[in-house]
Hints:
Blueprint: E1 25-33, H1 53-76, E2 82-85, H2 89-92, H3 94-102, E3 106-109, H4 126-141, E4 147-148, H5 159-165, E5 170-171, E6 181-182, E7 191-192, H6 201-207, H7 212-229, E8 235-241, H8 243-246, H9 252-263, E9 268-270, H10 273-283
Parallel strand pairs: 1-2, 1-8, 1-9, 2-3, 4-5, 5-7
Antiparallel strand pairs: 6-7
Helix pairs in contact: 7-9
Amino acid sequence: MTNPRYDYAPIIRRKALKWPEGARIALWVAPNIEYFHFDKPIRGSGSSHVPDVPGYTLRDYGSRIGVFRLMRVLDKHRIRASVLLNAEVCSNHPEIIEEGNKRSWEWLGHGMTNSTSMLDYPAEEERDVIRQVRQIITTATGKAPKGWLGPGLGETFNTPDHLAAEGFEYVSDWGCDEQPVPVRVKSGRMIIVPYELGINDIRIFIRENRSAEEYYRMVCDQFDTLYGEAAESSRVMCLPLHPFVIGLPQRIKYLDKALDYICSHEGVWRATGWEIADWYYQNYYEDPGRYER
Length: 293
C-alpha cells in the first residue's frame, strides 16, 4: 500500500522555501510534558511491573524539578517552547501550565496521558478522545491547540482526519521531511511540521546510552548540516526534549551549550510550531486534495 496522505516530493525538485527575514533555520523546541498513571506499566522504562517505582518516579522528577530547570535555560535563550502536552497534566500539575502561560508557550495536543497510546482506544472512541484533549487544554491554558503529536507518535489510519475535523491544523508524528508537508484529509486542512527522532533526548540518552557531551556534539552537527543546506532552501530543526531526561543536573548544561551555539548564528528563527505552520500556510501551502479511503 502506498501512503495516500502525501505525495513524494524530493528536496532537489522543490521550489526554494524561505522563512521570515530570510532565516535559514526555523528552530522549534518541543518539550514533552507528560502524565503517567502509577497503576499502569511505564512505557519505555524496561519494566512491566506495576507499580514501576523507578520508572514512575524518574518521570515524576521531570514534572517536579526538570521542567523548571528547562524553563530557565529556554528563558536565557529567549525561546518559547512548543509543548507536547498530555491533557491530564492540566488538572494534576497546573503550576506547569501557569508558568508556561507566563512565557507565552505554545501548547500542542499529546493525548490524554502517556500511559495510553491512540492505538489503544476503540476506533469509535478516537475522535471523542481527540475532542476531549482539545477541550481540556483550551480550558486550562486559554489557548486552543493547533498542533498534535500522539503519545509515542501513535496514529491509526483515521487520526489525521479526526484531528482536522476537530480543528487541529498541523501534526508532527510523521518524521519524513525537514520542511512542512501538506497532508490529505477528508475535511479541513493539515500539514506536517517536522519533529525529530535522531536528536531526541530519549533516543540519545535512554535507548543509545550516550553521554551528555555526545548529545551536545550531535545537536551541533545536525545544526551545521541543516544550516549549510539551508543556504539554498530553508529548513526546520526541531529539538525534542523530555524534562525527566534533559532536565537532570548533569545534562542540562549541555542543552544550554547547544543552544548557545545554535543561537550564535545569523538566520535562526526561534519559532513555535504554529508560527512555522502559519508562515507555511500563508506563503507556500498548496491544497493536496482530499483523502479518500
